[in-house]
Amino acid sequence: MNPAPAAPQRPWLPRRGVIVPAASALVIAGLVGFFLRPTSPVGHWNSAEGEEKFFSAYDKAFASMPDPAESRDVRTDFGIVRVYRFEGAGEAAPMMLLPGTAASTPIWAGNMPSLLEVGDVYALDLLGEPGRSVQSSPISGPEDEAEWLAQTVAALPEDSLNLVGLSLGGWTAANLAIHHPEHVRSLTLIDPVNTFDSIPLETVLRAVPASVPWFPRAGRDAFNSYTAGGAPVEDVPVADMIEAGMQHYSMKKPQPVRITEQQLSGLTMPVLALIAGDSVMHDPPTAAATAKRALGASAGRDSGAASRTVRVYEDASHAVNGEYPEEMAADIEQLITDGARRSSG
User: Fold this and answer.
1) Which end of the chain is less crowded, N or C, counting CB atoms within 10 A of the terminal residue's CB?
2) Which residue spans traverse the membrane (predicted)?
């Protein structure tokens, strides 16, 4: 395991304006579903006013992103998935970025400059979440989650992509790799939830004040700050976007099923697991140990023909993507480069 980089500064800086916890609403989604039990079988906006508030914040947050070369809406059996493509300077096979719950594409703004040095980048809004993807049919479990994403990738020019998933997006990427490995060149899991460890009870309990839409915004901000290592979240466009989604959008999906070690050990593509040492979405030592054991990555060992690396960013919060954007990009580039070299060899 490589040594962790120097500790980042926690305060919200302009280039780190997207370090709001991308998966903080994962627990909230489950709690909202339990307490409020929306009658619609698919995710939906609770009011036109709430939808307008979210997309106003979405557009402001998206202004920090590079201009996409293309935006497309991919029709799947479960709804329409919004996909953006950004042209990069590097020659690596394209990456696809999967955000966490309620975060949507703008969460990646701080990562785009360094990732575009590696190659082209696709980014999408998760189906059944607040964003520009529109769910039309129920998503009942891991197979359905894998199917809509597989159909999305299949509609793109490439046969397979280098998947990069943050938090719930990490779970979603791993779930696709398990059910449809043909669409995954390599797999980068950034502090994924319910993948290497379960969500701690304290985090679940702290989510309760943020899980009810009519509670004051302060409860949602407090929970988001807690998952981001105490960083302030007020008056930040991407934080406003996440908070608006949490308040005004009712998700109607089951919580992600914990991925098993057997499933992880069966993955055949190169895998990079990045664990935040101060994450509150799992127990970091447990998650790191599980990742090393399941992926066969202890002491930098390769597993079969695929490169397996587990790296712990010791001082990072669950908002690790905004705290270590350049370091993460370098790790991802190394994974993609190693994978391409092994494939050609």
Assistant:
1) C
2) 18-36
